[in-house]
Specification:
The protein is 67% helix and 0% strand. The protein is mainly alpha-helical.
Length: 284
């Protein structure tokens, strides 16, 4: 029996055309990021030019120096704001990945009574906008005594339904034969979860890390935090740039600083995400 493989009949100029098309699309999509970075190094007179320029004629670091001067004169140290945001982001992301994975495993691989109805409720919760749940969340946090504490921001992030939905969908692709083989070898539920399930859903939890970090890092003013000592970095930076037109340059520097962490997390994880996404899902 002969196996015929389809060959791609594309000339050198065809390859060049495809490359140019992809390059133009990538360059176009990167324009907002490039503009945000270049704006942070523009003096005030270049920021208000019309039409705006994508490049910088007279680059300067004055925007960043003014920003750090304003932060150094604030009542709460800059390091405190940074610690609050970093702590909330790290704990919330780690908890979200762990809890979502542990909850998704039995839903995806074991026949639990009522699991379909429970998962339907989870899917339904994804349809609600966050502003719809603000009042119920505030009442819940007030009842638990978590107002003006880290828990008010971390616990809702840990219980995000998006993470559970994403992890369950990926875990369903893992063959049951792998779990049965692990049981035959004497592995318990926890060891099967750590050694078999989690490595095979790597694209799911890497993607979840990117989403979670992006959401938690950008938390600004909330209805749960009133103490200045517990407020986040985006809140402090947004308060600084609310001074008016004179702080437009500082605002551009703030935008770049807030972009650093989410973009860095994506850069460090995107190679693994792309590599595993290309072959995600083990088929029996």
């Amino acid at each position: 029996m002969k196996i015929y493989q389809k060959k791609v009949n594309r000339s050198l100029w065809g390859n060049i055309s495809v490359f140019l098309f992809v390059f133009i699309c990538a360059a176009f999509m990167s324009l907002p990021l490039i503009f945000a970075i270049t704006s942070a190094f523009k003096p005030l007179n270049e920021l208000w030019l019309y039409p705006p320029r994508l490049y910088v004629v007279h680059p300067t670091l004055k925007n960043f120096s003014d920003l750090f001067a304003l932060l150094s004169n604030s009542w709460v140290p800059f390091s405190r704001y940074f610690f609050n945001t970093a702590f909330i982001t790290a704990v919330g992301t780690a908890g979200n990945v762990l809890v979502a994975s542990m909850c998704a495993y039995p839903l995806a691989k074991y026949k639990i009574p009522g699991s379909k109805a429970f998962f339907s409720i989870i899917v339904l919760s994804l349809m609600f906008n966050t502003s719809v749940t603000d009042i119920p969340n505030y009442l819940t946090m007030s009842f638990l005594g978590w107002i003006n504490s880290y828990q008010a921001l971390i616990v809702p992030a840990i219980g995000s339904s998006l993470g559970l939905y994403l992890m369950k969908q990926f875990m369903e692709q893992i063959p049951d034969s792998l779990i049965e083989a692990a049981k035959i070898d004497g592995a318990g539920h926890w060891r099967t979860f750590i050694r078999i399930i989690m490595p095979n859903v790597k694209p799911a939890w890497l993607t979840l890390i990117v989403f979670s970090v992006q959401g938690l890092w950008n938390i600004g003013n909330t209805n749960f935090i009133y103490s200045e000592q517990l407020k986040t970095l985006p809140y402090a930076l947004n308060q600084i740039i609310s001074g008016g037109i004179a702080r437009a340059g500082v605002g551009s520097a703030v935008a770049v600083i807030l972009l650093i962490v989410p973009i860095s997390v994506f850069i460090f994880t995107q190679s693994n995400i792309i590599e595993t996404m290309s072959s995600s899902g083990i088929k029996e």
